[in-house]
What does this fold into?
Amino acid sequence: MRIAMLLAATFLASASLAQDKPPSGSTEKGKKLYVDLNCHSCHGTHAQGGGRNSEPLIPLGYPWAGFLQQMRKPRQDMPAYEEKLVSNQDAADLYAYFNSIKPAPAAKDIPLLRSF
It folds into this structure.
């Protein structure tokens, strides 16, 4: 009985972490965290990508579970941000911030650049 309860609790905990809907996040806090965690040094001032072959973060394109997985156990050179360093709420704030950033227009959509 105890083992069944432990397995059920483990399943529920992993299922809640993997949910696609993030906790409610603050874009202002996420923007501050982006700077405080030094994310901009690789991902660019506006999360557009940049140095160290980092990927742009906008448009985000990750569902919440994928975003959290990438933060906790990154697949490339990005440092891991364990929950003791970046809480799930902090991650939700970052996620809200990234989703609030509008992608830059394509060059063809900028009148001054159409003639180039």
